[in-house]
Design a protein that fits this description.
Blueprint: E1 2-7, H1 15-27, E2 33-35, H2 49-55, H3 62-74, E3 77-85, E4 89-97, E5 100-106, H4 114-117, E6 127-130, E7 133-137, H5 146-154, E8 159-163, H6 171-182, E9 185-189, E10 192-197, E11 200-205, E12 209-211, E13 217-220, E14 226-231
Parallel strand pairs: 1-2, 2-3, 7-8, 8-9
Antiparallel strand pairs: 1-14, 3-4, 4-5, 6-7, 9-12, 10-11, 12-13
């Protein structure tokens, strides 16, 4: 399976240009799965909830249609972050394939000022079967809660797609541990650049990466835009043994974890 991680620099509010630019980058390489950043089409640094509402889309809105067209043409899968307009506003990610929308995930663990604009995710951590393997999603700050990746792994995910807009420096290294403790692949797609809006200025760290179940950083970008591809075998993530006597799933002592 060829997996591409896409690192972009969206212009705030320029949805059509951001989508067109990202798809243009993706046209340059062939992959079975492309993973884009959190809120890749809108930008991140909202001033108020009204602004989010103006830029949010339904799960099958214009961004999904554009991405689905790409996925159909390339016979591939794409995961991207967007502001979802549903019963409430959600920081969400969409999973799109050659036949259109497969599913969505709504961010469970909102970060900082996101709590002012978005409702907490209410769909849990779903996983999806594809011809390449089982894929799950989480978004950005979900990384700091080990339960996020663990839940996806226990539900059968072999790869975690992780759209992100990282401002803290810890996540790229922490995802090595998440992959190692769950014996799972992860693709963290971050953005770069600075957004200064109102009285808030945010600088995003980049360092998008693909990490193996053995904790190997297969590829990691720097602080510039770019796209890189790794060829991976998801079957590796089904081997949960550390050694002859230790298995990261079978060795769990759930009877001892109760509070």
């Amino acid at each position: 399976m060829r997996v591409a991680v896409v690192q972009t620099y969206p212009a705030f509010g320029e949805v059509r240009a951001n989508v067109t630019g990202a798809l243009g980058m993706m046209e340059e390489v062939n992959a079975d799965l492309y993973v884009l950043p959190e809120l890749f089409n809108t930008g991140y640094n909202f001033i108020d909830e009204k602004e989010v509402g103006a830029l949010a889309e339904s799960a099958e809105g214009p961004t999904e249609k554009a991405v689905a067209g790409f996925a159909k043409k390339k016979a591939c899968f794409v995961i991207y972050g967007f502001a979802e307009r549903a019963d409430r506003l959600y920081n969400a990610s969409a999973f799109v394939g050659p036949d259109g929308l497969i599913g969505i995930y709504r961010k469970v663990h909102l970060f900082n000022r996101e709590n002012l604009f978005f409702a907490p995710g209410n769909l849990g951590f779903p996983v999806y079967e594809t011809p390449h393997g089982i894929i799950g999603m989480m978004i950005c700050f979900d990384w700091i809660y080990p339960e996020s990746a663990r839940t996806l792994m226990l539900r059968g995910a072999q790869l975690i797609a992780h759209p992100s807009n990282l401002v803290l420096p810890f996540c790229p290294d922490a995802m090595v541990t998440r992959c190692l403790e769950n014996r799972i692949f992860a693709v963290t797609a971050d953005r770069v650049g600075t957004e200064a809006r109102g009285d808030v200025s945010l600088t995003f760290i980049g360092k998008s990466e693909i990490v193996s179940p053995r904790g190997e950083i297969l590829l990691r970008l720097g602080t510039e835009t770019g796209i890189v591809v790794a060829e991976i075998d998801l079957i590796i993530s089904t081997f949960k043994k550390v050694n002859e006597f230790n298995d990261v799933v079978g060795g769990r002592r759930t009877d001892q974890y109760k509070l």
